[in-house]
Amino acid sequence: MKKVIISILALFYFNISYANSNQVFSVRCNFSDGLVTNFDSGNPKSKGDASMPELVFDQIDLKKRSARLIGNAGTETVQALKGQDSIHLLEKTMSGNLNITTIFLKTKNNLLPVVTSRHQSIIDAPFVSHYVGLCKALN
């Protein structure tokens, strides 16, 4: 019973302290499952993929609506938006493509569900991907 109460309090604390305060925080996200779709033939063709690299979102500041993305290609300032029990992180790439990551603040075992979608136009056809995984708070 004591463990259940502590777990509930930890969940409540995480949701309150990060989502509803002005506290700046960071998360490390790893992705386990994904789907990529290309339109090279003119029709969508999808296949499973598990090659999404780790993403770290540092200095997430919901008051300033900004965060720093640290990925395999360097760092980038992204927009951070508060949702209901979630945080949405939007990156507009140098080529104008949009990447969207949503971290859900429903924690289990101190891990947060995450989904990221990349909407890219490569040469003459769209190339989109969608990955799911878990994030861990770093502070």
Would you kindly provide a brief summary of this structure?
The protein is mainly beta and 139 residues long.
When the domains are counted, the total is 1
CATH third-tier fold name: Porin
CATH class: Mainly Beta
Strand content: over 45%
Textual characterization of the structure:
With 139 residues, the chain is mainly beta. The chain has a single domain, classed as Porin. The protein is 13% helix and 58% strand. The chain has one helix and nine strands, in the order H-E-E-E-E-E-E-E-E-E. It has one helix spanning 2-19, and strands at 25-38, 45-49, 55-61, 66-71, 74-83, 86-92, 98-104, 111-122, 125-137. Strands 1-3-4-5-6-7-8-9 form an eight-stranded antiparallel barrel. Strand 6 (86-92) and strand 7 (98-104) form a beta hairpin. It is globular, with a radius of gyration of 16 Å.
